[in-house]
């Protein structure tokens, strides 16, 4: 029995010594335990210091366990707190890194945007400079349209009255012609309050002191390119959409060929004013001889008399210029001479029209 008791005590002592390494504070309980063993041995020798030394021994074991467990719990709590603190620190670090990354990303995006805006601004400035140079090259003048008078006349912001060159829309003011209001409304919707480019052909003003101009909605790369004339010139737009007829008055004939071509296209499709008949609704280059038969008869008679009277003068000038008559008509020796002044020929109602030049009898003399 003593042997078993001794083995148990040794085991308990070894446990306490080993555990004390991890929890040094528990050695206090180990000391009390050893004290209890000492007191028990003294009691066995008859030297009774404490009546119940076993209680001291038991107290040492209990104290050891209490101190050991308390320290372990504190250690675990500290470890837990440290772990939480470390986790919190890691989260804070991740959050800070994420915030810094987002901030850097925003700064970079801002830089990219600023650079893109700078490049776009430079591009626009370059394009604007190129447009201004092209406008100067073509003699274009940028103006703002203050008010539209009718289909082919408007007033600019500096109060100049502009008459479109080479086209004629039906009247819609003091005299009203069929489709005149539609033409006026169309021009108003397209031009009033807008900025456009004006281009002079040859003449500066007409007899009514109106400035004679071509109107470009946008600056053309080549002002003689048919596609650009169709898409960017307002004079051509009116003819193509049947709001105007071509009306040629030399020397402003730069675009007369194009206007006549566009008018024929519109007439074939019965577009706009051409829906009212092959003559349209106002005066123009495509009008037939029947509209001006009486005036042409007078003009032919006058031309014949005038040609005889001025034959010597005509021969001296090689007929390179027209011979005027009292009625204001013109006479040319042949189509070659006439085309020097009117490259596209003339319609039956034109002062220079003579039946001898209209070989195909289509009421258009010397057409190409």
From TrEMBL:
Source organism (scientific name):
Cytobacillus praedii
Which InterPro entries does its entry note?
Answer: Excalibur_Ca-bd_domain, SNase_OB-fold_sf, Staphylococal_nuclease_OB-fold
Region annotation Disordered: where it falls in the sequence: 285-332, 344-368
User: Biased composition, Polar residues: where in the chain?
Assistant: 323-332
Q: What is this protein called?
A: Nuclease
Alphabetically ordered keywords of this record = Coiled coil, Membrane, Transmembrane, Transmembrane helix
Q: Where is the composition biased (Low complexity)?
A: 292-322
The parts of the chain that form a coiled coil are 86-143
Cite the record's Basic and acidic residues compositional bias ranges: 351-368
Residues crossing the lipid bilayer are 6-35, 55-72
Show the PROSITE patterns listed in the entry.
TNASE_3
Please name the SMART domains in this protein's record.
Excalibur, SNc
The residues covered by the TNase-like domain are 139-276
